[in-house]
Every structure is written in C-alpha cells, then in structure tokens.
Amino acid sequence: MPELPEVEVTRQALGPHVTGRIWVGAVIRESRLRHPVPSALASPEPQQVLQVRRRGKYLVLEMSHGALIIHLGMSGTLRYLTQSVPAQRHEHVDLLFADGSLVRYRDPRRFGALLWVPRPAEAPQTSF
C-alpha cells in the first residue's frame, strides 16, 4: 500500500501540472474499484482545479464546484500525460483537461477509489 511519503510525493508531482487547469471529463474504462467510480465523472460541468492537497493517504483535487478524492489503494499510481498516449492494461480512469492533457489512474489490484464530492457554488471550500 502506498504509504504517506509516496502519497505526498504524488501530490507534489501532480500539483504543479494540474493546478489552474480546466477539468472537462473522464474516460472510465473500469468502474469496479474499491468503490464504484461515479459515472458523473465522465461528463462534469467544466471546472478549474484550485489545488491538490493530501489528507492522510487521500489526495484531494479541490475544484470550483466540488472535490475529487483519490485513494491509491495498494498498487495505484497517477501519471500526468497527453491524450495521445494510448491506455495500457490496468489503466482504469483518465481525468481529461481542456488543454489536451490528462491524469491517468492505474491500479492492477483495483483497491483504490475515486470519489466525487459536489459543492454548491456559494459554499466555501471543503475541509475534508
């Protein structure tokens, strides 16, 4: 299982690439993870990534209208790529951005999770 240092390194590596980008959707190739991947991720309202935080072993992508909470499980990884890179085996979800980049979630054991927590526009940022 990724330990806190690995999750923090992932946060530090991912943050500069996605902060400020506009998230426009997701490609869900396998939704059967520890918790089913919400189908609403495939076509969300476009929104800006405000920051990437870590809360324990969870990564939290704070968005304009909610938060995407990611747990890497035992063997999960996130990679920042362009949409031209074809998906390989065990790469279950791509988070797509308006500029043609993506974050690809890979998890051979499927023990990880991607959860969406909506937030009304007038609500303050979450404190998850």
Write a structural description.
With about 130 residues, the protein is mainly beta. Helix content is about 10%, strand content about 40%. It has a single domain (about 5-120), classed as Alpha-Beta Barrel (N-terminal domain of MutM-like DNA repair proteins), CATH 3.20.190. The chain is built from one helix and eight strands. It has an eight-stranded antiparallel beta sheet with strand order 5-7-6-1-2-3-4-8.
List keywords for this structure.
mainly beta, eight-stranded antiparallel beta sheet, 128 residues, N-terminal domain of MutM-like DNA repair proteins
Unreliable sequence segments = none
What helical percentage do the residues reach? 10-25%
Order of helices and strands: HEEEEEEEE
Strand order of the largest sheet: 5-7-6-1-2-3-4-8
The structure class reads: mainly beta
> Which value, in Å, is the CA radius of gyration?
13 Å
What percent strand?
A: 35-45%
CATH architectural type: Alpha-Beta Barrel
Q: What's the topology here?
A:
Elements: H1 4-18, E1 22-28, E2 47-55, E3 58-63, E4 66-71, E5 77-82, E6 91-97, E7 101-106, E8 113-118
Antiparallel strand pairs: 1-2, 1-6, 2-3, 3-4, 4-8, 5-7, 6-7
Summarize the structure.
With 128 residues, the protein is mainly beta.
